[in-house]
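stuck on this fold:
=====
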Amino acid sequence: MLGHLRKTEAWLSNAAGFIAVSAMIFMMLSTALDATSRSLFNFPLPGVYEFSEISMAIIVYLGLLWTQRDNKHIRVSLVGYRKPQRVRLAWEGLAWSFAAIFLFFLSIPTIEGAYSSFLDREFRWGIIQMPIWWVKIVVALGLSLACLQMSLHAIISFNSALGKTNG
C-alpha cells in the first residue's frame, strides 16, 4: 500500500514540477520578449505583467510538491542533529505531521476562496482582462496535495523510526 502511495506521489509531484517549470520558462521568455520589445520598439507587450503574476503562483504552489519529493526544502537540524537515526526519524515524522496540519488549515480557506472565485468567474483588471479563478483552484489544489504529501512523509518517517519497511 505504501509503495503504491509513493508511486502516486512520484507521478503527481513530477506532473506538478513539469507544470511549474513550464510556467517558469513561459514567464522568463515572455518577460525577456517584453523587455526587448520595450527597448527596441518602445512598445510593451500587453498582458505580460498579468501572466507573470499568475506564473508565480503556479511556480510556488506546484513547485512545492516537486521540492518535497526530493527532500530539498530548507531544514533546521537543531533538535535531531546528533541523535540516533530512529530518534531523528521520529522527530522528522513529527515535523512532517505539523507541516501537514498547518497546510490543512491553510488549504481550507484557500479552497473556499477558489470555489467562490470559480462561481463568480473572477478576473483581474489590467491591460488585458485575465481570468484568475483557475489560478486560485491551482493554488488550492497545490496546498491540498502538499498536505497529503506531508502526511505521507510523516507516515514514512514514523514507519522508518519503528523499523518497518517502506514497501
Residues 2-41 form the longest helix (40 residues). Residues 2-161 form one domain. The longest strand covers residues 123-124.
